[in-house]
Every structure is written in structure tokens, then in C-alpha cells.
Design a protein that fits this description.
By secondary structure, this protein is mainly beta. The protein is built from four helices and 17 strands. The longest helix has 14 residues.
Length: 287
Amino acid sequence: MAAAVLVAAGLACEGAARPPDAAARVTVPSAELSIRFDVADGRPPAVSVLGFRASADGPNAPDVLGLVDPLWAAAPDQGCALHDVDQAASAMGARGETVDLEELSGVGVGFGPGEPLVRPFPRLFPDVAGVVGGVVAEAAPQTLAALPEHLSVYGAESELPVADLPVPALPRLLAANGKAPVAGMLIDGTEGLTLSLANAAGALVELRPFGATVAVSCAVPSNASTEALISIPRALLVHLPRARGRGRNVPVSIEVARRVRAREPLAPSGARVSVEVRSAIAAELRP
């Protein structure tokens, strides 16, 4: 009798619907193509291209492009904020989530007559804390005769461009605490740092210590006037790590950039194409 009860109970359990697995992962696919122009005084501009497909675990889709290329990390909605480029990867690792990368193959980027068509090639992406890994398509920086006004994006199956995007105008750093920017300049930030920018609307400003993962990122509103002042309080500057053996000063890169983004048919579900123009100047900061 007892055996019959056990059998009946087993059949009842087998036929019952299983509750949903609370630990089930949600995979979020995405595709990215990023084009960056680096501009420096006295040198011709250089362009680099990065493309990949990504499969991210977890219900909250991460900023995958910011994980793969920290320079693409999202700026704050307004004002300035301290940003750690390793924080997002560390948080994903703590949740047991991963991002698998696959190259975005066959795409090309053109910059107008006389300039070669740039096609990125597959490259193994170094594993980041066991969270991000796989293969990306990348084209190393290539020199251009001049900064183009627009670019064309080509797909793998067409000789005609699938998109034509503007190249944003470069913001210009006019002064740091009232002094004209000069490579290697020493900036006293004990009372904070004020940066003066021309062509500032929609610009991104970053204060990036060399060899560190922590940076200060500032956003300029898109409705800002032609010139704008960016004020970075000392409360943020004191969190920038000092280089060993350099005393009180922090070697930093002051970078200004502007971005445009669009969604284009480069993958079955579309791909986000990001275009950025950026310039940088090295300085030493005394926070």
C-alpha cells in the first residue's frame, strides 16, 4: 500500500507544471560600429573603426560599447561625474553575467574621393575580468588628409553605401583656469577646474589620468551657447589617483569630443553606428 502511494505521488509530481526558473538568463543581442577621428594640432587627423555583434546576459542590457572601448563610456546626463571604466564590468561579474563578442564582418567606411575604403578585420578581444570576451572587427588608426564633413557606411552585400552620416564638428578647448592650453601645462586645481570651450553645444569633456581607470566626465547641454564654461569641483578632482613618484601632481589627458549616433541596417536586427571626433592635450593637475 505504501509503495502504491509513493508511485502515485511520483506520477503527480511528474505531470505537474514546473515552476519557472528564477535564475534563467535573458540574452540581449546588439551590434555596434564605431568610428573615431582623433585630431591634434599640427598633425593630420587619424581614424579608427571598431565593429562587433554582442550577446549580453542579464535582464538589464549593459553599455557594451563602453565596456569594449572605455572612451565610448556614456557621459552623464548633465554636469560632471566621476566615472570608473571598470565598474560596469565588475558589477556584471558580481552578478555572474557575461558578454560574448563576434566580429561585425564585411562592413566598410568611406571618407570621400581620394581616401581609401576602410574595412575592419577580425581581432581577438582580450578577456576582461572573465566578463567580456570574443572577437571584434577592428581597423587600426589610419591617417587622413583632412577631417571629412561626412562618411559613408557600406554593408557586406552591397557596393553602394547603406548610410551617409555627418562627422560632428570638433569642440575647441580655449582655456583651463584662464590659461591658454599648452601641452604639459601645470594646472592648479585646489579651487576646482574651469574649462572654456568654443563650439561647445553637445560636447563631451573628460579628465583622464594616465594609467588609471577613474576619470571625470562632463556633458555640455545641446542648447549651450557658442562658448561655454565647464566647472569641475575640487570634490571630484581629489578622487583622481596620483601617479607614483610624481608627488602631488596628477598627469592627465584633457579630452574634448562630440558624438552622433544612428541605427543602420548592418545586421539582421540593425546596428548602432557611432561617430566621434576627439582631441586631447596632456597636462599636470594639482588637485
